[in-house]
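Ligand: phosphoenolpyruvate. Inputs:
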Amino acid sequence: MLVVMQEGATEAQTESVIQRLVEMGFTVHRSTGVRHTVLGGVGPIDDFDPAALEVMEGVKECHRIVSAYKLASRHFRPGGTVLRIGSVEIGGPSVVVMAGPCSVESVEQMEESARVVAQAGARIIRGGAFKPRSSPYSFQGMGEEGLRIMRAAADRNGLLVVSEVMDQMQIPLLVEYSDILQVGARNMQNFNLLRELGRVRKPILLKRGIAATIEELLLSAEYIMSGGNYEVMLCERGIRTFETSTRNTMDIAAIPVLKRLSHLPVIADPSHGTGKRDYVMPMARAAVAAGADGLLVEVHPDPDHAFSDGAQTLRPEQFQELMKQSGSIAAAIGRRV
Ligand code: PEP
Ligand code: MN
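Predicted complex:
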């Protein structure tokens, strides 16, 4: 249920609509746009007459939303969401690049990674301190020490930090050290984790599950948003199909589909999307052309000795080239990197 207030509607008018919605049993989420305030009513009631609200003072229109997700829907914020994190805007005209190694491994590795990615123009460094590995015998991450190392390297190079949270118990640590909390593909439907992240006041990078539909991704975003955290980014990182030439099948079409269905910024991860270094740059170009608001790219000073995902990780000079080429594609569609 969505109520769009008229341009210039007073605070008192908006408040009385909110009160009415609450009386009807809805939980109300408010979105203040440049011209209109939109009230999203979430609740179990479906059999009411929207005309009852449309006659109220200051109301422009009222719609019953039939899609399963409401707060993540484009209707809730037709102009799109721009997340502001420090001096970085995600969802605006710039395509924001988040880059760094798959895993945090050492002080030297992170210092060098931060220097390389910042110099090439990335604004955010990535690196996992808690790693979801398919095998329990693989490297599991450095934990808090890794977060501390990455934070220091980021601060020295003017970068923000994105890192994965695998479990509710890790949330306080991630909130302390990271600017953006990543939910990995394997946790996209960890509903208890999503609910807890709804209470966090830090942006969330939500990755698409390996076998998740676009609607399921949006419903997972809805879990976080319905808890009050509207700062969510959606990430296409490839899905599992019958194809074996690439690690996953990078669903480029998901980018314009998500942009149409949702107001949330869309990030593309061509590293996990392909699993092979040679395909990362072409898929980064394709993602920017398709309208991605950001890229998540694995880069390592020495990928052949990376603790995880070396095969899909770019060398520094390859990343510099990716930045250059992505910039040309962005310029062709009126954006910049
Ligand atoms: C990652 O970004 O390091 C990662 C583990 O990604 P995904 O959850 O998409 O596999
Ligand atoms: Mn990885």
